[in-house]
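Hello again, I could really use a second opinion on something today. For a while now I've been wondering how a particular protein folds. Please have a think about how the structure follows from the sequence. Here's the protein in full, and shout if anything looks odd to you:

***
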Amino acid sequence: DAPDVMARAEVRAGTSGEYPVPAPGGGFGPWAGAPADARSTADALEGLLLAREAGLAVPDELLRSGLAAALRSVQTPGLPDPVAWRILALLSAESPDGAVLVERRLRSTDFDSASDPILLWAKVAAERAGRAEEAASLASRLLEAASRSGGLAWWGEEGSADAETDAVEVTARVLVDLAGGGEDAEVRREAFRWLLARREGPTWGTPRRDLAALRALLAELDEDSDLPLEGESATEPVDPTSLGADAFDLAPRFDDRPA
């Protein structure tokens, strides 16, 4: 069940002692010693915040370093909007400066033409910054933006090589955000069918996708959902506990370098 998967994750994280190593100038790169970049900094900060949420002992200095680097990164000219909004979603509840930046960006962004990941992260950022009216409006936009066909629903771009816009990752992240909702049960059911139908054998093809999908499944299970996660997909029923073992075994180490 979900507690069993989370228990294994916490034991692995708690005993490995593996935390991202800051780059020499601050922030985080894709591996230890690599120059910092905005995407890697966002990934590292997200991991640190999730680890803290799970009750793990995240070093305060490491978290402060990640927040400061993210705040610098999000103000860098030319940063792609999906990355900027993801960073703002991470900062909005952790930094007063981040909440101010969220308010400014909400006023300056044209959401009529915004992509799915921008709608998702702007909605999350607005919620965490206490901007309830804007968050509700963005939630409606996000649901309306779902691509729907043949009883399936998804967000993001199918076949995208960019993790920020990849349909599997974006759909899984939307499902985490919508977990336990009421009025959106139909689109959530269709999105879970789509997600399960996109498995490649026992996994979704990459560790990032596996972990994103696993979080979506666990979030729904934690809400005691009555969504039919088995028996109505285009594939065999998924066993979240076995997926959890595979995903954590495949997850890259923080110090992995390219070959």
